[in-house]
Amino acid sequence: MYKIIFATGNQGKMREIRAILQDTEAEILSMKEAGVYLAIEEDGTTFMENAIIKAKAVAQALAGKEEFGADCVVLADDSGLEIDCLGGEPGVYSARYLGEETPFAVKSQDFLRRLAGVADEKRTARFVCAIAAVWPDGETVTTLGTIEGRIGHELKGDNGFGYDPIFYLPEYGCTAAELTDEEKNAISHRSRALEQMKPELMKRMSRKQI
Predict the structure, then answer these.
(1) What is the CA angle 179-181-186, rounded to 5?
(2) Backbone angles phi and psi of 157, in degrees to 5
(3) What's the CATH number where 174 sits?
(4) What's the rounded Cα separation, in Å, for the pair 178 and 153?
(5) Does 140 have pLDDT greater than 80?
(6) Which contiguous run of DSSP H or E holds residue 42?
(7) Which of 10, 90, 152, 160 counts the highest number of beta carbons within 10 A?
(8) Which of 71, 78, 84, 137 is catalytic?
């Protein structure tokens, strides 16, 4: 069976990824499930740079191992929130804002505090997701997905993760955390980036070449 090894330990992401890529019929593993335990320094200045850094690091760790052959690919994503009136913050620092160990509810409350009194039309924001795929032959393919919205005025919803409870989607009348998994996976930034990647994955899977 073809293997997709995703360079993340985030279980929320893995649930989304497995749901979005289920029609590939590949075995989808986190990096830890593939036996890779790395602390990867994400020192890129863009989401795309960080996605490539992570994918290449895991591919290098797997290089030469029997399980990383022609029927395998490493995927990595870097994603985050950009708030326009804050100059694009937190951007590539979305997970590290106020410290990596700080709960996202605390991070989110801080943004609500900073945006207090800002009118809805100026609270525009987007989620961005960059995906990088690295094959054993070194070929690298990238895609980018975004979803537009705005920052709400309170945390709402118990689904999703990260900044979902403050990311309001006007066309749905709710936050990303109030969507069902199926609804979110149909429109999310990660879904859009992965859907763009699927044709390349399917092409490689069909020919199974190095």
Answers:
(1) 85
(2) 100, 145
(3) 3.90.950.10
(4) 14
(5) yes
(6) none
(7) 152
(8) 78
Q: Is 43 noted as a catalytic residue in this protein?
A: no
Which residue range is the domain that position 109 belongs to? 3-207
- Range 183-203 average pLDDT: 93
Phi-psi region of 94 (alpha: psi -120 to 50; beta: other; left: phi over 0): alpha
Predicted confidence (pLDDT) per residue in 17-45, tens digit? 999 999 888 999 999 998 888 889 889 99
Q: Return the number of other C-beta atoms located less than 10 Å from residue 109's C-beta.
A: 15
Residue type, 26: A
Supply the mean pLDDT for the chain.
92
Task: Kindly report the backbone phi and psi dihedral angles of residue 7, in degrees, each rounded to the nearest multiple of 5, phi listed first.
Answer: -80, 70
Into how many domains does the chain fold? 1
Distance of CA 125 to the CA centre of its chain: 16
126/104 Cα distance (integer angstroms) = 17
Tokens of 194: 């992965």
Chain-centre distance of CA 194, in angstroms? 9
CA distance from start to end of the chain: 15
pLDDT, one tens digit per residue, over 100-132 is 999 999 999 999 999 999 999 999 999 999 999
The kind and range of the H/E element at 64 are none
